[in-house]
Structure formats: structure tokens, C-alpha cells
Specification:
By secondary structure, the chain is an alpha+beta fold. The protein is 44% helix and 13% strand. Among the domains are: 259 residues, no CATH class; 85 residues, no CATH class. A hairpin with a 2-residue loop joins β4 and β5. The longest helix is centred in the middle third of the chain and has 26 residues. The chain starts with a strand and ends in an 8-residue tail after the last helix.
Length: 679
């Protein structure tokens, strides 16, 4: 799972799971932070997007062999880049090819409003890996006319078939992932995981007939395939060498073979070997074998994520999107945070969960702070800030999991130019002072608790199926909210000070609670258009968690809604009672997951997590107009440049930075274009 928010940082991001859904999203408020640093983190800003750079601390401390391993793994990730484009929408690769041809070859006026609108549209498409917004899932709106695009196509001698051309401007496939209640989510989602005539009922029926050889270790059916109808019969097209996406997968395998040859140790090499076998065969038992081996391979300075992993983009939660993150260990910070994984059993034993829902033996939870060396697929340009894998519940219970915090990504967020949003939305000076003093630590700890303790916590009742089967389209938001609640429950606890993680647990807890409620009820709304429902899983979970405790605490005025000078603020009046409410909600969310209670999760999410107070939303948008900072951020990747001797052997690998976002995107399309436009 991925974490995509940062909760009360200097950057006031808000919290996630690899949980990639918040696939990744940093926050909207930022406290003023003064940093002595000559590195330019900012690349450019357009529409609602801000592009940043990140450094790779510790690169120079790696041996050449380790640097080569990072390079090979990074190349393996980039080799699969086009897979996510095709997974996101069936016309994406055709549209991207045409738009890039125009961008590269057009020699006409590039100063008028039409061209500038075209350029912005292309950059938005690049950022979202397709024509649907990376966060809202709505189709991106072209602010230029059909006639203008026809002119550009003609003047650059570029072809774009009629259906793909029209979809840029019409209402067809308007939502990449549709998770609305009471509709056929599969049929109404544009994501390219299902054939055009496949329905919710088809998917449910198809996978109900699938049986794992060992019911105690259920296979991840559907994770690496597309489900289509051929002659009226349902059929899976498996992602593998010789199968769907085979030409790109063969290139991934090529680089993984090189990586395996210089693995740091046997455990790491064996895991890479199993991943290669999985890509060759598409066998889901091999996928589980790989995850067990990868989870246990904890030694070494280099680690990676590579495959079809997160299921957030599947409206019914089966199919994984391709992603890759290559990372270098940050030894100092990892040692400081290791204390959480060492004490995982204490947190489980002292949680407010029902006894039957607690794990008696929390095993194998490792937590590291790492520095990213390269990202691709669904992790780029919009990246998570933390990851906890593998996702299979039985592997977590039997073997454990790996949790990482992407330290240099968080550092880049914090060191990029800040805004004044925080001062606009805090209730008073005390709240501002707490955020400025404890916000970064609170956010880091929430991310760590969310990933290390939250996702590893709890167990399913005997005989209860996987959450994607029992909770269906609500599974992702329930799991993210549950992990958030674990973090929130323990952020206001003296145990953190006892463990040496904080110097004032109460002040840190207050900061975390202020930031979560502020973001869940107000500031995250700047990401929505007025009138929209909340649809993204992480945004939903932050809203239903915040709205639930707000309502349940009304009798005791636990959270006070204040109107001052026509502006709304939220003030927590009793942090102890709020802590208890978070505990109550955590207990209930774990019960829902453990029992597979679909009716309860539907009621929880639809009552508290979907609808938006339109008057408050209009006010938030109006207050936000004064700020020029974009609500979404993402990254260009450093470029790893190998230097060769006369024999073609790598003698050194230099790290350079791309000058522009468009330059990197065009370079990727040129050098990592391994799929046909139609797959």
C-alpha cells in the first residue's frame, strides 16, 4: 500500500497507504520553513500542478556495483512506463503519440492562447499518464477547439483516428474510475482493465468460481490480467512475456536479469529471480512466492518495487497498475524509526480493537527511511511518500511486510517554495505555533504509524474473504482510513515519548489532530470543483474519519465549528475525548474489515465520506484564490548516466537533473517506447 499525504508537516501534507491511492498526494498547507539549500527543487507550475526535483542523498557512498544495481533496476522500471498509460485508458498511447508529434514538429505561432492551452493540456496528460486527472479521475478538459487541433494535426502531418480525436472533446469515458454507489462501476469506468461489454456482475461471477489451491493463502486473482469477452465468454488476457504487454515485459526482464547478476546478497538475488519467473509465466503462485522472498530480503543498501501492485484504479479492486520505485537506504533515519517495528506487538496489544480482531503475533514488520533513486509507472510523476507491501493479508500475517518512508521526496516537498495557506485556515495562533514546531515530526510519525503499525494491524475472522471481495468498491478507502486511525490513536499517546521518538507527546498529538481535522473537513476541498462529490479513496477516508468524529463529538462539543468574519474554522476543545472517538472508530472499522460487513462500510462511507457541504466548499475555494501554489505536486526524476570504457563496461554512473518536464517526457517516449499504440 502507499501513502500519499503528509499530515501536519512543515508542508502539512495529509496521510496514505501503498496504499498508492493518494497515489500519492502531498499536502495543501505549508508552514513557513527556512532552509539553507542551493539546490533548486522547483521545475515549473501549470494548471493545478507543480513539478519538483529531488536529490539522491548517499549516492556517492554506494559502491560502483551498488550504483549499477540501482541503474539496472531503474531501467527495468522505465521499460514498463507505457504499460500504465495503456492501463489507464485504451486511447492514451495513440493520443500521446499524436500530441507529442505536434509538440515536436509544429513551427507555427507558439505565443497565442490556443497554443499555450495545447501545451498545458499536453503537460497535464503527461503528468496524469493519460487524459484523465491523476487524482479526481475526471477527464482533462482541453481549453482549445477541435478545429485548432485539426489544424495542428494537418500542419505537422500527424494522424489521430476519429474515435481517439473525438474523445478529447466529448463526454465519452468521462471518468477513469467510477466508484459511485448504485451504478455498474466496471461498465462506467474508462480504465482499461475490462473489455467494453464486461460488467460488475461478470467480474463477480468470474472470480467467484476461482478457487485457490490453499484457501489459507488466497491467490491474487485478476491482479495481472485484463478481463474481456470473446464470443460471449469471459477470458483473462495475462500480463506476461508472450502475453498482454509482452514486448515491454521482455524489456523489463532484460534489465532484471542484469540486476540479478549483481545482487547484493543471495536473498535479494533469489527474489529478483522469482520476479523474473513471474513476468515470464504470469503465474500468481510465483507472485506470492516472490512476495514472500522479497519481504524476507531485508539486508543490503538497495531495494525496489516493480510490478503490478496497487488496485486503486480498478473500480472493483482486482487489477494492479504497473509501478516501480528504486530506493537507497537512509541508515541514520531508518535506525531512529526502527523502534516502531520493534514495538509492533505492543501497539497491537494495546489497541482498542476487539480481542478476536487483534493479531497474537505481529511478525516481520520492517520500517526504513529510504531515498528514491528513480520512479516509473503509477509512481511517477505523482509519487507516494511512503509504501507498505506486500498487500496480501496472509503474507502480512505469516511473513510480515516492508514499510518505507521516501525521505528525499518528503525533503523536496518541505524545501520547495511554501505558501501561506496554513495561516489562512488555522483557527488561532496556538494552532499555528504547534504546526510550525511539531508539524514535520507529527507527519513523519503518522506516516510511519500508518504504514508500519496500521496496515500490519488486525486480522480477518476465520472464513471471511479478502476485502476486495467482501467490501468491494469501498475496500480501499476503508483500509486507508483504518490505517490512518491506528496512527491517529497512537499519535496522542505517552508511549511515543517513552520510546524516545518525541520530546512532548501531548503537543505533538495536538498538532497531528489539528492538522488532520483541518485537512479532512476543509483544506483538501481545494482539490475538488464546486459541486463534485468526493471520489478518490484517500480523500474519502480523510473526510469520513473527520466527519464521523465531528458528529459523534457534538454532544460534548469536542470539535467546535466557528464562524469568524464570514470564515469557517474548526477548533478542537477536548483532545482526550477526540482520542477516544478515534479509538471507537478504529474498533468499528476493524470490525467491518474482519467481518466483511459490506452494509456497514457502505453506510459509513456514503454517510460521511462522499457528499460535500456546498456552502463551505464555495467558501474554501474563495479563500484559496489568494494563493498561487498548485494543490498537486509531482516530480521529474534524476537521470542516471553510465560512463563506459572501451570494452563497454560501466566505469561510473553520474547523477544529473533534467532541465525541463517536457524534455524528460519526450526523452522517455523516445527511449522507453516498447508497446504498440493498441494492445
Amino acid at each position: 500500500m502507499k501513502v500519499t499525504h503528509v499530515l501536519g508537516f512543515a508542508l502539512a501534507l495529509t496521510v496514505f497507504v501503498s496504499c498508492k491511492e493518494d497515489k500519492k498526494e502531498p499536502v495543501v498547507e505549508v508552514a513557513e520553513v527556512k532552509v539553507e539549500n542551493t539546490f533548486d527543487y522547483n521545475v515549473e507550475q501549470f494548471a493545478d500542478i507543480k513539478l519538483l526535483r529531488y536529490q539522491i542523498p548517499g549516492w556517492e557512498n554506494l559502491t560502483l556495483k551498488e550504483q549499477k544495481l540501482v541503474y539496472y533496476l531503474t531501467q527495468a522500471g522505465l521499460a514498463g512506463r507505457d504499460i500504465i498509460w495503456d492501463q489507464n485508458y485504451r486511447h492514451n498511447l495513440k493520443i500521446r503519440t499524436a500530441l507529442e508529434a505536434i509538440y515536436t514538429n509544429y513551427s507555427g505561432d507558439k505565443t497565442n492562447s490556443d497554443w499555450l492551452a495545447f501545451e498545458t493540456y499536453l503537460k497535464r496528460v503527461w503528468f496524469s499518464n493519460g487524459i484523465h486527472h491523476h487524482y479526481s479521475n475526471d477527464k482533462l478538459k482541453a481549453e482549445f477547439s477541435q478545429d485548432y487541433l485539426k489544424t495542428l494535426l494537418a500542419e505537422t502531418n500527424t494522424a489521430l483516428e476519429e474515435e481517439a480525436f473525438n474523445v478529447i472533446f466529448n463526454n465519452t469515458d468521462s471518468k477513469k474510475v467510477n466508484k459511485a454507489k448504485g451504478v455498474d462501476n466496471v461498465a462506467l469506468s474508462a480504465v482499461n482493465f475490462y473489455g467494453p461489454s464486461v460488467t460488475n456482475a461478470d467480474v463477480e461471477k468470474f472470480y467467484k468460481s476461482k478457487k485457490s489451491p490453499n484457501p489459507e493463502k488466497p491467490l491474487s486473482f485478476g491482479l495481472n490480467s485484463k478481463l474481456v469477452k470473446e464470443n460471449g465468454q469471459l477470458k483473462e488476457l495475462v500480463y506476461k512475456s508472450g502475453g498482454l504487454y509482452g514486448s515491454a515485459i521482455d524489456e523489463i526482464i532484460k534489465w532484471l536479469n542484469l540486476a540479478q547478476g549483481i545482487a547484493e546478497n543471495k536473498a535479494q538475488g533469489d527474489a529478483i529471480g522469482l520476479l523474473i519467473q513471474y513476468y515470464k509465466t504470469g503465474d500468481l503462485q510465483t507472485w506470492d512466492d516472490y512476495n514472500v522472498a522479497w519481504t524476507a530480503a531485508t539486508d543490503g543498501n538497495v531495494d525496489y518495487i516493480n510490478s503490478f501492485i496497487e488496485v486503486y484504479n480498478d473500480p472493483v479492486g482486482y487489477r494492479g497498475t504497473f509501478e516501480s520505485i528504486v530506493q537507497i537506504n537512509d541508515f541514520d533515519m531508518s535506525q531512529k524509526m526502527k523502534v516502531l517495528s520493534d514495538n509492533a506487538q505492543w501497539f497491537e496489544d494495546n489497541s482498542p480493537l476487539m480481542d478476536e480482531h487483534k493479531k497474537k503475533n505481529v511478525v516481520g514488520v520492517t520500517y526504513k527511511v529510504v531515498n528514491v533513486a528513480g520512479e516509473a509507472g503509477d509512481a511517477s510523476p505523482s509519487t507516494p511518500i511512503g509504501v507498505n507491501l506486500p498487500n496480501a493479508n496472509w503474507i502480512r500475517a505469516a511473513v510480515g511486510s516492508k514499510s518505507v518512508s521516501l525521505g528525499n521526496i518528503i525533503e523536496a516537498y518541505n524545501n520547495a517554495e511554501s505558501s501561506g495557506r496554513l495561516k489562512e485556515f488555522v483557527n488561532d495562533e496556538e494552532e499555528l505555533e504547534l504546526e510550525e514546531k511539531y508539524g514535520q515530526v507529527a507527519d513523519k510519525l503518522h506516516t510511519a504509524l500508518h504504514e508500519v503499525i496500521g496496515h500490519a494491524s488486525g486480522q480477518l475472522n476465520p472464513g471471511v474473504g479478502e476485502t476486495k471481495e467482501t467490501l468491494k468498491n469501498y475496500a480501499s478507502t476503508l483500509e486507508e482510513g483504518r490505517a490512518d486511525l491506528v496512527g491517529l490513536y497512537y499519535l496522542y499517546n505517552p508511549k511515543l515519548q517513552e520510546l524516545g521518538l518525541v520530546d512532548d507527546w501531548k503537543s505533538l498529538g495536538k498538532t497531528a489532530y489539528d492538522g488532520y481535522i483541518r485537512n479532512g473537513l476543509m483544506t483538501q476541498l481545494i482539490r475538488l470543483n464546486l459541486g463534485d462529490d468526493v471520489e478518490q479513496a484517500h480523500m474519502r477516508n480523510r473526510q469520513w474519519v473527520s466527519a464521523w468524529v465531528f458528529e459523534k463529538g457534538k454532544a460534548d462539543n469536542v470539535i467546535e465549528k466557528i464562524t469568524r468574519d464570514g470564515k469557517t474554522y474548526y477548533n478542537i476543545t477536548d483532545y482526550d475525548k477526540l482520542h477516544d472517538l478515534f479509538g471507537q472508530l478504529l474498533r468499528e472499522t476493524q470490525r467491518i474489515k474482519s467481518e466483511g460487513d459490506y452494509q456497514a462500510v457502505e453506510t459509513l462511507v456514503e454517510t460521511y465520506g462522499v457528499k460535500v457541504d456546498q456552502d463551505l466548499h464555495a467558501e474554501i475555494l474563495e479563500r484559496n484564490k489568494q494563493f498561487t501554489g498548485a494543490p498537486y505536486s509531482g516530480f521529474v526524476n534524476p537521470i542516471l548516466v553510465p560512463e563506459m570504457d572501451d570494452n563497454g563496461e560501466i566505469t561510473a554512473i553520474k547523477v544529473t537533473q533534467p532541465e525541463t518536464f517536457s524534455g524528460q517526457m519526450l526523452d522517455y517516449s523516445k527511449n522507453y517506447n516498447f508497446l504498440p499504440e493498441v494492445n
